[in-house]
Amino acid sequence: MNLSDVLARSQSPRRSSQSPVSSLAGSSSPSLPLRADTHVQYERLGTDVTLQCGTMAWDAAVTWTINGTDIESSHLNGSRLVLRAVDLSQSGHYSCYEGASWHNKYQVLLHVGTPPKEPILTCRSNTYPKGFYCGWHLPSPTYIPNVFNVTVLHGLQPLSCEKAPTPKNRCQIRLMHLFSTIKYKVTVTVTNALGHNATTITFDEVTIVKPDPPENVVAKPVPSNPRRLEVTWQNPSSWPDPDSFPLKFFLRYRPLILDQWQHVELSDRTSHTITDAFAGKEYIIQVASKENDIGTWSDWSVAAHATPWTEEPQPRTTEAQVTETTTTTMTSLAPPSPTKICDPEVGNSAGAVSWTAGVVLAASSLLFI
């Protein structure tokens, strides 16, 4: 049945289609808009639920619908609707209609869910010494709306916890007393229509200091050094005063072909040269940070990748190139060919020149006589 069919049937004075509740909950649009007197009812997942048709008598003839679709009469006990071991699919808009007049007598929005379990609460300072934040979440969904309330005490003094825009389940607390030995106590309480729960943690300020990971981690090969990699990084931008509260760093690296990491702990320097890399192997490098004296290590940074310098291979010389080079060299060293006195193609002209020269010499001799 498509949506238009459901809507058409919802406007009809007679309804003959009947289906089980569990298979149709939420499958179509409500037959009627929500009225101001629509009731809202929350029920626990897996329990039996009874919906009454307003003030109608127990034995009155009624029809129930969920989201505009008729419910089988087998779910009725008189005028009441009985739902056994409700599941999430049975959340929806239920309506009760009076017998033949088809007059809507009652509407209820049923929400199936669970009471909340103890929330998981964590507090951390990544902006020491300015303050810290606390975040919370439920270990499992409740499927219905929850309201959280957070209280913070420094000794007996209440502190404000300012809600952060994102993420929604987080608030910020300013550190009012630096280096205080008085403990903080944070409690988060969660409440919904089916129950409530709470979690409390107590801590010293120095135990929750945990910087964000270092930023802009870059690794580069060192020219002419096949076993070296130069690694640089920056302090996390969220750390407000690295001069007064310097960070130390922990670097780990390994070639991609191996699973075992090598580690180096460093002072407040933001660079390091790896000197024992495998030549020609790609490496993965990460860095963590920690306040010099207090707190815990940050998470690992985004990984940087680099391969140590390798010498450019010399071009290979083929046998054909060797033969060509030898031939060229021998040709360039060969003596020039002797000059021809008489070219066959111009032999007749050369003979004529020689005969003319002889006649001239003979004439000259006669003159001297």
TrEMBL record:
Domain of life of the native organism: Eukaryota
InterPro entries: FN3_dom, FN3_sf, Hematopoietin_rcpt_L_F3_CS, Ig-like_dom, Ig-like_dom_sf, Ig-like_fold, Ig_sub2, Type-I_Cytokine_Rcpt
Localisation: Cell membrane
Record-annotated Ig-like domain positions: 30-96
GO MF terms, alphabetically ordered: ciliary neurotrophic factor receptor activity; interleukin-11 binding; interleukin-11 receptor activity; signaling receptor binding
Biased composition (Low complexity): 9-32
PROSITE patterns for the chain: FN3, HEMATOPO_REC_L_F3, IG_LIKE
Membrane topology: Lipid-anchor; GPI-anchor
Protein name: Ciliary neurotrophic factor receptor subunit alpha
Disordered: region residues: 1-32
Keyword Membrane: yes
